[in-house]
Amino acid sequence: MFKGTPEIIVQRREEIVGACEQLYQTMSFKDITLKEISSVTSFSRPTIYNYFHTKEEIFLALFEREYDRWNADLEKILNSERDYAGKEIAEQIAKSLEKRAQLLKLLSMNNFDMEENSREELLASFKRAYGKSLSLFREILRKYCPAMSDTEVEQIMYIFFPFMFGIYPYAEVTAKQKEAMKEAEVDYKYQTIYETTYNCLARLLKN
């Protein structure tokens, strides 16, 4: 690790993660290399190794950032002065994920690779952000669904969070995929991230 001040380390790590995020808008995970990332930063590829050992570690940091962003929205829902009911909770959470397409994309495509090829301390940092999402989601259900038992809350959590892995590939369909579905004569109704999320949560909360 680079022996600089904590501020410099944070600043440079954020620059590297920001460069990765910029590339990820137009490139796939497999096509993004440390060389590509360095070309969008202010320093060389060897310098990146002072902060991240692998491409997967950089993506894991981006993944953590995405959970932090989602957590900020979940905190707003939790701390709202409005008394949300079942479908309104589904609406609010669906709106929060509608803004987090990148989080859902990372979940659906590269989660295992990122975790498997990252150092334990970085993985633990990521898991703290993920764990906060679980905690905030749990507290939202407890606050706005007081009639639910703890067992019911846990059951919804462990249905919805695995469900999140499939939201992106169902909602963000490419033109090529649509054409293939058409040629295969698959009868399929396309839904947005919001619609997919809302329909799942509304049904879970109703039941």
Key attributes of the depicted protein:
207 residues, Tetracycline Repressor, domain 2, 12 helices, Arc Repressor Mutant, subunit A, mainly alpha, single chain
Task: Give the topology.
Blueprint: H1 6-24, H2 34-38, H3 45-48, H4 55-78, H5 86-98, H6 101-109, H7 111-116, H8 120-144, H9 150-163, H10 167-171, H11 175-183, H12 193-206
Largest sheet: none
Gross geometry = globular
Total helices: the number is 12
- Any idea how many domains? 2
CATH-assigned fold name of the largest domain: Tetracycline Repressor, domain 2
Order of helices and strands: HHHHHHHHHHHH
Instruction: Please compute the radius of gyration using only Cα atoms.
Output: 19 Å
State the low-pLDDT regions, or none. Answer: none
Please report the total strand number as a whole number: 0
What would CATH call the architecture of the largest domain? Orthogonal Bundle
- CATH homology group of the largest domain: Tetracycline Repressor, domain 2
Q: CATH top level of the largest domain?
A: Mainly Alpha
The residue fraction in helices comes out at: over 70%
Given the helix and strand composition, which structural class is it?
Answer: mainly alpha
Overall pLDDT: 94
State the end-to-end CA separation.
50 Å
Strand percentage lies at under 5%
Describe this structure in words.
The chain has 207 residues and is mainly alpha-helical. The protein folds into 2 domains: 1-52, Arc Repressor Mutant, subunit A (Orthogonal Bundle), CATH 1.10.10; 57-206, Tetracycline Repressor, domain 2, CATH 1.10.357. The protein contains 12 helices and no strands. The radius of gyration is 19 Å and the shape is globular.
